[in-house]
Amino acid sequence: MAVFDVQLCVNTLLYFFIFVCGFAISIPIGVTDIQSKGCVLYGSLKPFNATHYTLSFSSKANCDFPIYVGVFVCIFYALGMGIYNSYAIYKSQKDPSISSQMWVMPFILLNSLVTAAMFVSSCIVSVGFRELCDSLTQDKPYQYYSSCDKAQNQKLRLDGTSNIVSLGHFYAYINVTQTASWICTLGWLALVISGIVRFALNRRLRTQGAAMSSDTANISTIEPTA
């Protein structure tokens, strides 16, 4: 049973790690969204004169989706699973077989959906960020910014208005969101693979008569053996 105990501990730590990364996803892009008063992902910067650009925002959904995924998937759901697994570790101190009696298949399916959503969110951030930076540095009559990070804290005119905004430290913030998002994607994928491995091991144990009902037993209802 040591294999299952080690796997359960690793999964628990991974859930809590993803929980922390969820803040690194949602907070930076949320701050950028508030500072610029619009979504800069997939936005564009067009030349206004030799030293200034006009900024066009994209749909708010382009920023809202990564924020919602970061909050509800990486923070709330990962925290809940971390607590659930922590409880299982506590119960396993009295009954080492508890880890082989936990639900497996439902979480494989759910974590697979979460991984897909996380992958889509990461692509939105990466591609949207790349398009914004490309519009700033490429194919412009005025090459005022040689790289994307040069536009941090610069005053930019909103397209179609006379309003001036600052993107703040948008380059650093979105880079943090982008990195954390892909790390979480890999983390969720690792949890899916771990679940598949445990499901296969549980089936082998059941065929050997060493475990029972590993995919349907609720750990909260299992009484520890003396």
From TrEMBL:
State if DNA-binding is listed as a keyword.
no
Q: Superkingdom of the source?
A: Eukaryota
Subcellular location per the Swiss-Prot or TrEMBL entry: Membrane
Q: Pfam families from the xrefs?
A: Claudin_TMEM179-179B
Q: Where are the transmembrane segments?
A: 12-31, 65-90, 102-129, 180-201
Topology class, membrane: Multi-pass membrane protein
Report keywords, A-Z. Membrane, Transmembrane, Transmembrane helix
The entry assigns this protein to a family as follows: Belongs to the TMEM179 family.
Q: What is this protein called?
A: Transmembrane protein 179B
Q: Which organism is it from?
A: Magallana gigas
